[in-house]
């Protein structure tokens, strides 16, 4: 797949904007899913996107300084998913 996705950094999530970062990942998963469908691949995006949106609601931080999703760097789908995995692992370790 030859396209890129807006990808918040782990630092964006850790330092000040976890909810905004998770919502951005949820939105970009929709893009990934559409690209997968074009390539005749299955996609379970709705479940994961909804879970990310639900998780985002659990963070109670001001988002006045958070960047819009479209201002994050664009990364390959593989790198996008790697960063998402790192963020989810960080959230999991923080809440255990």
Automatic annotation (TrEMBL):
Lyase listed as a keyword: no
SUPFAM superfamilies for this protein: 4-helical cytokines (SSF47266)
Any single biological process term in GO: immune response
Places the protein is found: Secreted
GO molecular function, one term: cytokine receptor binding
Keyword Transmembrane helix included in the entry's annotation: no
GO CC annotation terms, alphabetical: extracellular space
Keywords: Cytokine, Disulfide bond, Secreted, Signal
Family indicated by similarity: Belongs to the IL-15/IL-21 family.
PANTHER family: INTERLEUKIN-15-RELATED (PTHR14356)
Name of the protein this chain belongs to: Interleukin
Protein source organism: Poecilia reticulata (Guppy)
């Amino acid at each position: 797949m030859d396209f890129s996705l807006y990808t918040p950094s782990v630092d964006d999530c850790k330092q000040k904007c976890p909810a905004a970062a998770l919502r951005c990942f949820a939105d970009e998963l929709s893009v990934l899913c559409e690209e997968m469908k074009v390539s005749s691949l299955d996609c379970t995006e709705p479940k994961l996107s909804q879970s990310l949106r639900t998780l985002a609601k659990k963070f109670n931080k001001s988002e006045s300084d958070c960047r819009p999703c479209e201002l994050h760097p664009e990364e390959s789908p593989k790198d996008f998913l790697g960063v998402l995995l790192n963020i989810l692992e960080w959230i999991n370790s923080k809440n255990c």
